[in-house]
Structure formats: C-alpha cells, structure tokens
Task: structure prediction
Amino acid sequence: MSEGITISKPAQEAKTKKAGNGAPQQISGSVAVLEAFLAEGVDTIFGYPGGAIMPIYDALYDYQDKLNHILVRHEQGAIHAAQGYARTSGKTGVVFATSGPGATNLVTGLADAMIDSTPVVCITGQVFAHLLGTDAFQETDVINITTPVTKWNYQVTDATEIPEVLARAFYIASSGRPGPVLIDITKNAQLQQFKYEGYKRCNYVRSYRPKPIVRKEYIEEAAKLINQAERPFVIWGQGVILGKAEKEFRQFVEKSGIPAASTILGLSALPSDHPLHVGMLGMHGNYGPNVLTNECDVLIAVGMRFDDRVTGRLDKYARQAKVIHLDIDPAEIDKNVKTTVPVWGDCKETLPLLTELVQQKVYPQWLQRFKDAMKQEEEACILPELNPATEQMSMGEVIKVLNELTDGNAIIVTDVGQHQMVACRYVKFKQSKSNITSGGLGTMGFALPAAIGAKLGDPKRTTIAIIGDGGFQMTIQELGTIMQFGVDVKILILNNSFLGMVRQWQQLFHDKRYSFVNITSPDFVQVAKGYGIAGQSISRREDLKSALQAMLNHKGSYLLEVMVGKENNVFPMVPQGCSVAEIRLK
Amino acid sequence: METGKQEFTVTVYTENHIGLLNRIAIIFSRRKINVESLNTSPSEVEGIHRFTIVINESEDVVRKLVRQIEKQVEVLKAYYNTTDEIVWQELALYKVPTDEIAEKVKVERLLREFGARAVVIRKDYTVFETTGHREETDKLVQVLEPYGLIEFVRSARVAIIKASKGFHEKLKEFEKMAPGAEIKENEYLGKQGEVFSM
Ligand SMILES: Cc1ncc(C[n+]2csc(CCOP(=O)(O)OP(=O)(O)O)c2C)c(N)n1
Result:
C-alpha cells in the first residue's frame, strides 16, 4: 500500500469537524462519495451494506435527509431497480454493494444495463488496498469480472481520487451511448481523510468521444435517398428515448410521412395510436413491419442496433433496401447490416437536420400495405388472442382490459417470456419512457426490482409490473423491499404454470418434449400477504375487469395473479434462423 | 467464411491506465480471434501508450474490431493496416552451446549472413540476437537447431505506419474539443453543521 494514506475513523472525526469558511476541509473518502452524489443531483440509492462498504454506510447515516437509500433484498435487485429508475427518470441510477458476493451479485444487472445502454453508477466496496491479491475475506477481482459488462470501471485506492473519479463515472455513464460504470473503492480509501477541494462535474475526458461529429454531407445524402424513395420505412429503437429526441423523431416521421415501426426497447417513444406507427419489429413483432422490411426500398434505422431478434436471418434481411443508419455509436454502423449512408451522431441533432431536408410527403399505397398486413395478422393472431374462444383466459385479453383501465398512461414493466412479448405487442402507450423491459439480455427476474426503481423514478405515475410465474420467483424477495419502503407497485402475475416461452419452443421445435418447463408455484397471494401486500388470484373471465380495477384502485402495492391458458403460444413468430419474410402467423 | 483473411497490424493509442490491456484483450477473445502478437510500449507522445496487435482476419472483421476498440473510454484512437502499409520488426534471441558453435559453425559468416549479433558470450553458452521479419528470424532457428539450440524467444511485432504523421497532431485535435472547465460547487459545502447533525 502506498505511504501517506492515513487510516482513521472518519465517522467521529468528520462529524466534529467545523466548516472552515471556504478553506479546504478534511473529509473522508466516504463523505466525498456522498458529496459527489449530491452534486450530481442523486436523490435515490439502491443498495445493500457489508463489511467492505461499511465506512460509506456509516457516512450515509448522516445523509439520510438528503439521500434516499432503498435497502433491497439482493444486490441484483439493487441494480435492476437502479435501471428501472434510470429508464423512467432519464437520470443515472446509483447502486451500493459490498465486495465479494455483493459485487458479483451485480453482474447480471451490469450485463443487462450494458446491452440495453442504461446509465448506472455502481459503487462497490473493496478490501483494504494492502490486501488486494491476497485472497482476503470477501475479496474478488471485481474490476476484471466486470470489465466486459461495464462501459467503464475503475478501482480507487486513494481517497483523493474520489471526487474526480466519480465525476467521470457520472459523465461517462450518462453521456453518448449510456451504460453502466462501476467504481470499486478499497476500504482504506473510504476511511482516508483528505483535503477536499470541492466537486467539479466532468464534461470532458480526453480519450472519450461520446458523440461523433455530425457530418452534413451524410445528412444530405440521406435526405436525397429518402426524397427519391417510393417505399421508405423507418425503424426506431431506444436511441430515440435515450437521446430525449421523441419530439424530433415525431416531427421527422410526420413531415416525411414514412411508416415507422419500433424495436421492443423503442416502444412508447411514439404513441401507439399514431397513424404512422405501424407496430413492433422482431421475432414476435407485427407481421407487416417484418415482412415489409424485405420490400421497402429505403430503410431508415434510428437509434437501434439490428439485434438478431430484429433481423432474423441476416443474409436475407432487407437486401433490396438502401439503408440509412442514424446512431450515436460508430461501432454500430455496419456491425450487422451494411449501411448505404451512415448518419453518425446524436439523433437529437441529426433528426432535425434531416427533417429540414426531407420533403413533406405521404405514401398512401405503401401505408395501406401495412394496414392490409395488420388485417391479416388481426384475423390470424390478434383477435383470437384478445377475444379467445377458450374457457381459460389468454394473456392478451388481460392486457386488453388493462389498456381500457389505464388508458395507456401507466408505466409497464415486464419480465421475460411470453407475457413480455404479449404485453409489448398489445399494451397501448401514450407517453415515452413507459415501457421498461429487459430487451437485450432477456433477464428473468428483472421486472419486480425494476418496477420498484421505475416507480421511484417517476412517482406520480402508476407502475405495473407484468411478470410470469417463473420470473417472479427469481427475484420474489424484493417483495420485502416493496413492503419496507411502501413502494406502490402493482404486480400482475400472468400464471400459465409453465416456463411458457421455453415450453412454446419445445412444442414447436422439439416435438413437444417438455423438458423441465413445468413449474410449480407457491400461493402467490399468501406470499404477498406475508409481506403485507394485498392481492387476489382470479381464473374466471368475468372477474377480470373488476380485479384489475381493484388492483389499480388499491392504495399502495397490490398483487393480482391471473391464471391463463397453460399452453398458449405467442404469434406471429419469426423462427430462429429464418428470414423476417418467413414470419409465421401460426 | 474463412475467405479474405490476411495479416493486419492494429495500432492503438491509449491512456496509460491499469486494466486497459485486459479491456482490449477481451475484445479479441470474446470473438474467438487469436492474437498473433501483442506489444505495448510508450508512444511518441508522453503519457500515451501504444499497442501493436497482429491478427489474421478479413478486413471486414478487423474494421469492426477497431471500432469496438476505439469505443473504449480510455482509447484515443485505433488504426489498422495491411503489412505493406507498415514498416515492422521483430527481435529474436537464440541461446546455443558455445563449444558447439565455436567448433562447428563459422560464427563470423553466420553473423554476417543473418545480421545477427552476439549479445553474450560465455564459456557454456552464447546468446545471439537478430532483428527482422518473421522469415528471417525463423531461418536462423533452422540454422542453429543442429547445433543444440537451447532457448529461442521472439518478441512481439513493433510497427511504424508508413503514412502516419504521428499522434501529436491528432491529440491536439482531441484536446481542442475540451470545453471550458465549469466548476459546480456543492451546495452543501461549508454547511457541514447542517449535514453532520449528530
Ligand atoms: C435468468 C434467465 N434464465 C433463463 C432464461 C430463459 N427463459 C426465457 S423465457 C423463460 C420462461 C419464462 O417463464 P415465465 O416467467 O413463467 O414466463 P412465461 O414465458 O410463461 O410468460 C426462460 C426460462 C432467461 N431468459 N433468463
């Protein structure tokens, strides 16, 4: 360990320290962390204490009136909550975890935040610097474990670095293409007293270019292609939401008159009922957007990354089309789909430039193709799902009634599986940042903790977590967090008594060999009751509306379990390895 | 899929930070790309590190890799070049038994022919050194093997990009993007009495 680091007991010392008007003060590394949070406008921390982060928690004791700390039940819950918070608030989520197991429990959430570009700053405690590499108690090489799943990470062993490192952390997490940042702070640095010179927010890192410079010539080329197009098609992703460019996007779509479809993470950036919103892309997306991707002449991709769930078989994806790709991350250009015109840059800047140059147009015949396709899909999939002839309820009809009751104003947080696809297909969104789901990583267990964060990130809005019976059991312990902090989350379990999505694949592609997809659940209503959360379970259609209404009307959190058809499938579906044009309606 | 593979030399300018080697290395290993050679060294600019990485891949793959590398927060710039766009060298050391070599080999001729140099001459062993391209350093291995080559080691490639004007100018470009420093004082600063209420 380097010399000159004094390990003292800051808790007592700092408290007795008097402000020395303007002159640099001695504070501990732990206090510096909290001061950084205040300067960054952090109001909520999701965390779990432990040995290696105790000095920070000790300092937090005195900051309770300034910083709201939510004690979760598992560190994975902390980071998913921070993700939910970030996605509804548009701010950076903040997490505390201890060393060793505390830090490793964050890994799933880091990977999720990395692939879904969610701004999160995680602070992990670490053993004393002199113990690094000695296999000390609860020592893990957190920096190396998290390197592939963080946008940036850094280990602090000296408190004097803390203000600058945290300023960088917040800047890097939230700028450019956002992502998770992890700062590992050794215990000695948390304890160390140092001369605090104030906090400087960071807005520049020499080696980091968050936004590529916008190239006018590409905007012009893109506009030319669009103006000459006969069947242009816009596909957009979460980049529109992350870039806070919903208005700019809408203006572009409306002026150009181009039909537009969303990726799963782009949903809610444009209201679902917008006349040019033609649906969702992807494996379980809408029929028209998938099939017509292979018939458009110019494909305009905005803030999306051509995930394989969107493209299906790449060598049969939009081969006929000229591709314009607007993205803030230069590494996305040509990564999966070869672009004709790359429009590097923040879409908040590039979209208005493009809107300026595109002609005001309408494409009635082309738009009609999407409507016709929707008709076809309606007959084959949508109507049977929303108005099933079966005795058992379908997931789709639950969503349909929910839409009627929320009028599209709720934040919908979904877990992973069939219910996720059904919810994303059928929920009607009215405002942006309403669809919170684990898109890229597909993390079961995401929804419950993410809903806690989502609610705290935008407390005025109703937050509904739609979860499968499988995924709910992955992070069910966060009911404790909901109980303790009185977070008003409506939990809607769509129980099909199966790991439904896996069962669907086994049915379709493995000759119905149901291998370990039959899952037994506890009495969820009783479990919720144990946590002081009201709820009920229903299985009859005639109870659906009143039960959903009761859930929404209930003051505080509520659990509603709806028993749905056990072997329903989600359609349409682009089977893995098939082209988007080969989407199956049944 | 294997088509179009050729040798590329990737040059990466980075901040000199711990952990960056791992961050760059995993970009290759994650994609199951074998790194033929990797060298880290200082660069022409003080405080800036230079990685030289050799891989065998198609240009399409290399272009994408370089973008992924450049995306790393602490990477300033990454370039890729074909072998004819660079001047490159590798250094090799050969340890041979002195008696064998002195008796049987015309040492002088050997040194001249391969541009080799004796770095150490001891009673028991001699260490030769050559610098050059792979074929050249390899050839000397073949020559020395019959004489009981004890140890052989070759360094990673170092390379100069023929068309490069160096990194000083590029760095100035980057540094021009720095906005004016904006200091935000913490509103709780100097109100310690309120914050530490206990
Ligand atoms: C952590 C994790 N483990 C496994 C999977 C694979 N997986 C994807 S969907 C699914 C089934 C989900 O079942 P359930 O939560 O009941 O939802 P349903 O599909 O029935 O709506 C599984 C196991 C996953 N996505 N995440």
Remarks:
- Chain A has a mean pLDDT of 95.
- The pocket of thiamine diphosphate is lined by residues A 415-419, 442-445, 468-471, 494, 496, 498-502 (CB under 6 Å).
